[in-house]
Amino acid sequence: MLWGSGVAKDRAQMIGDVRSNLSGLKQGNLGIPLMLLVMLSMVMLPIPPFLLDVLFTFSIALSIVVLLVSIYALRPLDFAVFPTVLLAATLLRLALNVASTRVVLMHGHEGHASAGQVIQAFGEVVIGGNYVVGIVVFAILMIINFVVVTKGAGRISEVSARFTLDAMPGKQMAIDADLNSGLIDQNEAKTRRSEVSQEADFYGSMDGASKFVRGDAIAGLLILFINLIGGIAIGIFQHDLPFSEAGKVYTLLTIGDGLVAQIPSLLLSTAAAVMVTRVSSSEDMGAQVNRQMFASPRALAVTAAIMITMGMVPGMPHFFFIGLGLIAAGAAYWIANKQRVVKEDEVKEVQRQQDLLPAQKAQEVKELGWDDVTPVDMVGLEVGYRLIPLVDRNQGGQLLARIKGVRKKLSQEMGFLMPSVHIRDNLDLQPNAYRLTLMGVSVAEAEVYPDRELAINPGQVFGPLNGIAAKDPAFGLEAVWIDPNLRDQAQSLGYTVVDASTVVATHINQVLHKHAHELLGHEEVQQLMQLLSADFGERDRSFR
């Protein structure tokens, strides 16, 4: 019986595995094996010219799609599969080179149409049927692809991968700091850690993928010379063609074949360069270029003046230089006028809001009472006047939200409601200083810079930073207040970088955690007793 039940379980498991595999094939997992079979068939079996034209056209279309997706992606991780796609496209193109080489060497003596219409079109139409022009054009494409695009993209990939890996500890500690300050929860922290890991994997893969692109460019050059020498030799010694005729036929076919392969290669190299040089943002590349290059009309105005001046020089093509200068001047005027209209609308909106404010009424003098006695705050935060924007929501201050997160986190950990943090300005403090008080007694004081970010040394960094030397108020670690533009550099050197609001929120978290026993008073215990009584009453009713 046991043996029979075991056989039944094994059979059920096999049926389940078969169903799982069939489900995977229905979902599209059959594409990768089919692609491998197609590549092997192109390398091992002769390909008819018609199928060769279809595959060459597909290779060009695939490279265009990859380039456009790279341009329109908002950040590199939106196209994280790019290294794999790049490898697959490179292998497809190399297999096509092998197949086209076989067709050119076997049937090249029959004429230009023997290798397919695509290779014939690139050999006759694109380069005008002149093999000297074809060699020059192919050499220029190789120089552009190999020396400029591929080499630059490979270097940027290496540097990006190194700096991304070096910055991982700092980014992980920044996520932990946001989690401890209550700014984010566990799910968001897990998501951000996953993004950091995916970013490191992506740039590491791009570093390796750039080597494939570089090798592909070298292989294209070698295949060109092999096809050229081999084709001329076959035409002369096997098909008894004159040297000039063999050179003309096989040179045009070889150059056409090389151009068909190099154009997708150049497009994919450009896509790789775009992916490793772009910056993560919520805008696509076109919006970034428009916002950053044409935000100020001054650059266009100066360019227009220079172009018009050059156009007035005797002997220069006046129409082109002056015409382009006038276009640049018109664009500068349009941008300046648009910015002026936007500023006028903002001024009108501010004036309208001010007019809607009620008039201030004069305060009547009244007798003193208990309302005039200011109660002592359980937890207080006093800030200097330069730190007021941190606590003002109208000015984009994030400190109030972060303090709320700190109170929520500590309340969950301690088991009782943390008191509210009352914030007020204090002109007696330094402009960048703040003070934490418990029941009116000062317990901590520090200084922050709202226009800078704090780069904290976690214990091991790879270099110094320019900024204001300081110590982390919460943990006493060595730190530097840096310009926000140096954030990426600091993270790459191993620093943990946080903004001023996070620094204050983390300090408040440490102080409240340290003095939690002083914050649990009669009122808090009474609230806990009422909560337990209500909970016990509900449970008692449920049992009945």
Oligomer: single chain
Major β-sheet profile: 4 strands, mixed
The shape is: elongated
**How far apart, in Å, are the first and last alpha carbons?**
49 Å
Q: What number is the mean pLDDT?
A: 77
β-strand number = 8
Please tell me how large the radius of gyration is. 35 Å
Percent helix: 55-70%
Q: Structural class of the helices, strands and pairings? A: alpha+beta
Low-confidence stretches: 1-9, 24-28, 359-365
- Tally the structural domains: 3
The number of helical runs is: 16
Q: Widest sheet: strand order?
A: 2-1-3-4
How much of the sequence is in beta strands?
A: 5-15%
Order of secondary-structure elements = HHHHHHHHHHHEHEEEEEEHEHHH
Q: How would you describe this protein?
A:
The protein has 544 residues and is of the alpha+beta class. Helix content is 67%, strand content 7%. It has three domains: 26-279; 294-344; 385-538, 3-Layer(aba) Sandwich (Glutaredoxin). The protein has helices at residues 2-29, 31-44, 49-72, 82-107, 117-126, 131-180, 186-237, 243-277, 285-293, 297-311, 318-356, 399-414, 487-492, 500-514, 516-519, 522-543; strands spanning 379-383, 421-425, 433-438, 441-447, 453-456, 468-471, 478-482, 496-499.
